[in-house]
């Protein structure tokens, strides 16, 4: 049977619905799309998918080519660098033709200090095979993967819908039996007691906020589980983990700007939690156990954070270890028996600082490239003088090193294979600076294949995010090579609202300063054009989630600066969402965006930049919005409404909506499906900037 392609884009029906706040009445003609259970909503999304497929049918060959390029450059059967924990080496491996990772371990051999590399060796124990779990499912994701301290139990949780509501189970690793213990609607995170008899886990409230920590005794019914902590303040999320020393269960409650941490002795899991420091509005802190003390990384009178300690026996006074240094943002602290490692960023780059026991022999690790990203990786062992780090740049594939903290020797264990003759020497990376309207210098990271001529003729992609203090640091991407090898320049705009330049960078791009995020991005685009990297008719902007809000905002702010905009799971109707405290995440988001329910000023400010509120008859660039039906972070209806209004308001524009009907915020779950999704996006980008035939 032949199915005819749609003759044109679907026109969503209009059913005006009004909302009123602070004396302002707004009509939303597409509010009906918020009803996921309405067959008309599903029918509309499917009609949009059909139109998108028809409108991009000419790219089918290019999509397949790009998919094969990604696949051909990837070593499909591969093995991660094993990590030692107790008497085992733990690792994941992938097999050609299979979508998901296989989680394994092997015993440590007598005298063995270096991780066993190469093919899986005799004695391998498969702990969890994602491919078996995913059989017959359209989607699969792991939420928790947590082996008990004695190595006997595995707690793991699964999601088969993409809505990030997991079912938690326990596997006896001695017998291979999955116990009857089964806990539905669990959240990410878990922690074992020292003897492995008790498991702590998290559940969410109706607004999808993780608010309860439970204590589960292995082998007993979940109905007998005890709520150890219930966070009633709707601004706060809770988390739970076991310290690296395996001495304490840590329960942390975090809002966007305030923290409170509790601990329970891991060898006494029934004990009442002890608060390290009572919450104080605006003070954030995190802890690490280190012998007789808790290390405390905090921002009390320290905008870019400082490091202190307090007694394990009687938490109270904070003793300074590293004073606040403006411009050096301390991001996290990891404690080992004889060393402390601090993850930090300075001058827009990540770094690692090592402190010997007693805060002596302090040094910063050094790295060779002008642009790079570095961070700790795993490191479950407490009593060790070696740590594992990952290093990457725009041209250097992900690299795993073991670092001797005493001799400072770095040993490369593995660099991610890139098949097909990849050579970093064929590419160049650059750091340039744009100037925002208020004079702020904004860093831009750029990578291109050598030989790209800077005369304005090269096509380019500019990526941005700019929220939650989340930094988009330089990183390597196999898929990106399909752009670079076609002469495309790839750039990352490190705009305010992110954390690239420290805490002030974040503060200057949130709440009533949010517009800086958008004007910074436009300034970066204009700098690329002015410096002859590209031209406006050959430049595509790309961003996702809160970066999708950025995409929607710049579409209204500077429509003629871009040839196209790719907005992935975009937060393009923020005012409507943040006005509704019953929606997932809304209340917790008020400290990021402001509370438009209570503040007329915040309401007016958000309305002034909300992409959906500001759709107008403008000369929009081509826009592709990609979303997922089961996304619980940015609900599918935001981009659906946005595209419907764009098409009705600017009918001469080119607007496409693609909805994954069985996925969540991160899109398709299997690696091959993810590659196909990326091939679709890259083919659209190449076509939009005139590089499809390159």
TrEMBL record:
Using the record for this protein, list the coiled-coil segments as residue ranges, or answer none.
none
Q: Which UniProt keywords apply?
A: Hydrolase, Protease, Serine protease
EC number(s) stated in the UniProt entry for this protein = 3.4.21.83
Per UniProt, residues of the Peptidase S9 prolyl oligopeptidase catalytic domain are: 475-690
Q: Which residues form the Peptidase S9A N-terminal domain?
A: 9-415
Biological process GO terms, please?
Answer: proteolysis
Q: Which InterPro entries match?
A: AB_hydrolase_fold (IPR029058), Pept_S9A_N (IPR023302), Peptidase_S9_cat (IPR001375), Peptidase_S9A (IPR002470), Serine_Peptidase_S9A (IPR051543)
Looking at the UniProt entry, the stretches that span the membrane are: none
- Enzyme class, spelled out: hydrolase
Source organism's superkingdom?
Bacteria
Report a single Gene Ontology molecular function.
Answer: serine-type endopeptidase activity
Instruction: Note down the stretches annotated as region Disordered.
Output: 1-24
Q: Name one Pfam family in it.
A: Peptidase_S9_N
Please give the family membership noted in the entry: Belongs to the peptidase S9A family.
Q: What is this protein called?
A: Oligopeptidase B
Origin organism is Actinoplanes octamycinicus
Q: What is the lineage of its organism?
A: Bacteria, Bacillati, Actinomycetota, Actinomycetes, Micromonosporales
């Amino acid at each position: 049977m032949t199915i005819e392609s749609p003759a044109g884009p679907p026109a969503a029906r209009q059913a005006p619905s009004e909302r009123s706040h602070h004396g302002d009445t707004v009509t939303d003609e597409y509010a009906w799309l918020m009803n996921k259970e309405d067959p008309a909503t599903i029918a509309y999304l499917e009609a949009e998918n059909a139109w998108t497929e028809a409108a991009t049918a000419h790219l089918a060959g290019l999509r397949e080519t790009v998919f094969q390029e990604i696949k051909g450059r990837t070593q499909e059967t591969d093995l991660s660098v094993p990590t030692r924990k107790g008497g085992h080496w733990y690792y994941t491996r992938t097999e050609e033709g299979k979508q998901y990772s296989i989680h394994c371990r092997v015993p440590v051999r007598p005298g063995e200090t270096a991780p066993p590399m190469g093919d899986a060796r005799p004695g391998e124990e498969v702990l969890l095979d994602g491919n078996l779990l995913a059989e017959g499912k359209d989607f699969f994701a792991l939420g928790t993967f947590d082996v008990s301290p004695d190595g006997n139990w595995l707690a793991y949780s699964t999601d088969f819908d993409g809505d990030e509501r997991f079912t938690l189970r326990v596997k006896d690793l001695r017998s291979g039996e999955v116990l009857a213990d089964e806990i539905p609607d669990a959240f990410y995170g878990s922690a074992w007691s020292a003897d492995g008899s008790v498991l702590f886990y998290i559940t969410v409230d109706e607004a999808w906020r993780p608010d309860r920590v439970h204590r589960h005794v292995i082998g007993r019914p979940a109905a007998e589980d005890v709520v150890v902590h219930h966070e009633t303040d709707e601004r706060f999320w809770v988390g739970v983990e076991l310290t690296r020393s395996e001495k304490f269960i840590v329960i942390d409650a975090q809002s966007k700007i305030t923290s409170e941490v509790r601990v329970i002795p891991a060898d006494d899991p029934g004990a009442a939690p002890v608060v390290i420091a009572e919450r104080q509005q605006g003070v954030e802190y995190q802890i690490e156990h280190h012998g007789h003390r808790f290390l405390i990384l905090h921002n009390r009178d320290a905008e870019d954070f400082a490091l202190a300690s307090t007694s394990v026996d009687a938490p109270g006074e904070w003793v300074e270890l590293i004073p606040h240094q403006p411009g050096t943002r301390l991001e996290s602290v990891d404690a080992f028996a004889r060393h402390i490692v601090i993850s930090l960023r300075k001058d827009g780059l990540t770094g690692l600082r090592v402190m010997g026991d007693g805060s002596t022999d302090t040094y910063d690790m050094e790295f060779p490239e002008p642009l790079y990203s570095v961070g700790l990786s795993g490191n479950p062992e407490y009593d060790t003088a070696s740590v594992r780090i990952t290093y990457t740049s725009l041209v250097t594939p992900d690299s795993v090193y073991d670092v001797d903290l005493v001799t400072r020797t770095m040993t490369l264990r593995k660099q991610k294979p890139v098949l097909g003759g990849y050579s970093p020497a064929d590419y160049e990376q650059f750091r340039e600076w744009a100037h925002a309207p208020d004079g702020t210098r904004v860093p831009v990271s750029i990578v291109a294949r050598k030989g790209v001529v800077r005369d304005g003729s090269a096509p380019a992609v500019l990526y941005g995010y700019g929220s939650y203090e989340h930094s988009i640091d330089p990183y390597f991407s196999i898929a990106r090579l399909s752009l670079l090898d076609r002469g495309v320049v790839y750039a990352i705009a490190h705009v305010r609202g992110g954390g690239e330049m420290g805490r002030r960078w974040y503060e200057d791009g949130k709440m009533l300063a949010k517009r800086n995020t958008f004007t910074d991005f436009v300034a970066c685009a204009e700098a690329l054009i002015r410096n002859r990297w590209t031209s406006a008719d050959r430049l595509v902007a790309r961003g996702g989630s809160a970066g999708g809000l950025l995409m929607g905002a710049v579409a209204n702010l500077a429509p003629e600066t871009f040839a196209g905009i790719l907005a992935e799971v975009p937060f393009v109707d923020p005012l409507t969402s943040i006005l509704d405290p019953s929606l997932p995440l809304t209340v917790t988001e008020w400290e990021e965006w402001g509370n438009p329910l209570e503040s007329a000023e915040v309401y007016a400010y958000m309305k002034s930049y909300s992409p959906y509120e500001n759709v107008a008859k403008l000369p929009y660039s081509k826009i592709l919005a990609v979303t997922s039906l089961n996304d619980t972070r940015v609900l599918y209806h935001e981009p659906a409404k946005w595209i419907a209004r764009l098409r009705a308001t600017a009918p001469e524009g080119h607007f496409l909506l693609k909805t994954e009907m069985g996925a969540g915020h991160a899109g398709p779950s299997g690696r091959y499906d993810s590659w196909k999704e990326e091939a679709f996006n890259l083919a659209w980008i190449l076509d939009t900037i005139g590089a499809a035939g390159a």
